[in-house]
Write a structure and sequence with these properties.
With 236 residues, this protein is an all-alpha fold. The chain has helices at 2-17, 19-24, 27-50, 58-86, 97-126, 133-157, 161-168, 177-183, 196-205, 210-235.
């Protein structure tokens, strides 16, 4: 465990030296603050001037907040993995299976655990639709698994950081399941059911649903399985 933690700390130092990656770390908190204070203020102004309320879409905004922290974390460590691959650092971890697993745990496992904790905390503090604690927990778990899948997607497809920037734009596509819940009627919205974010939206709009959570876990598992083999070949 000490080796894993040391390797994780090395990665953090590399991130701190990279301005672009460092800027991504506080982004979910800044967005959370904006949602918490600016959106209700804007809603009051709109209600007064146009007699229209944004409150029916508060859940959608909270869903975006829940997805952001794991997605940002996935992007940061995916770029770090790509940078280490470009420099040949990851080659050193091919020597033993133990070294390989320590490397993956430090670059993917620990960051995703951190993302889960931060997602739960930031959503509990900044949510504007008064989500239940169990709803925050279940949707945060799905979002973290989605972040894990997205990280593997970027590293398994891109060959370097330049390609990684292009591939990371596909992360935005993973968000499309959320607005489908609010904007597209049933049964047409089911076309987005292959996206983990769709099931996060289902949990939020129903204020917790174990069936939807179970389906969401299965969808995330399929994403992870799909990218995992190619991902492991690329980073080890």
């Amino acid at each position: 465990m000490s080796q894993t933690w040391k390797l994780f700390q090395i990665g953090l130092r590399q991130i701190i030296k990279d301005g672009m990656l460092l800027a991504l770390l506080p982004a979910p908190i800044i967005i959370g603050l904006f949602f918490k204070f600016a959106i209700p203020f804007a809603n009051n102004v709109i209600q007064e001037k146009l007699h229209f309320s944004l409150m029916p879409w508060y859940g959608l905004l909270d869903g975006m907040l829940i997805c952001l922290t794991p997605m940002m974390t996935a992007m940061i460590f995916a770029f770090l993995l790509l940078e280490e691959r470009d420099e040949g650092v990851s080659t050193f971890y091919r020597i033993t299976p133990t070294g390989r697993y320590i490397y993956l745990t430090a670059r993917i496992g620990i960051p995703m655990i951190w993302a889960l904790i931060m997602t739960i905390l930031s959503t509990a503090i900044f949510n504007i639709s008064e989500l239940l604690p169990v709803c925050i927990l279940l949707s945060s778990v799905l979002s973290t698994l989605m972040g894990l899948a997205l990280s593997m997607m970027v590293v398994s497809i891109a060959q370097n950081r330049v390609e990684g920037l292009a591939v990371s734009k596909l992360m935005g596509v993973s968000f499309l399941g959320l607005p489908a819940i609010w904007l597209i009627p049933v049964p047409y919205q089911f076309a987005a059911a292959f996206l983990p974010s769709y099931w996060i939206g289902k949990i939020i709009i129903k204020d917790t649903n174990i069936f939807d959570f179970t389906i969401g876990i299965c969808v995330c598992a399929l994403w992870i399985i799909f990218f995992s083999k190619r991902f492991i070949r690329q980073v080890t």
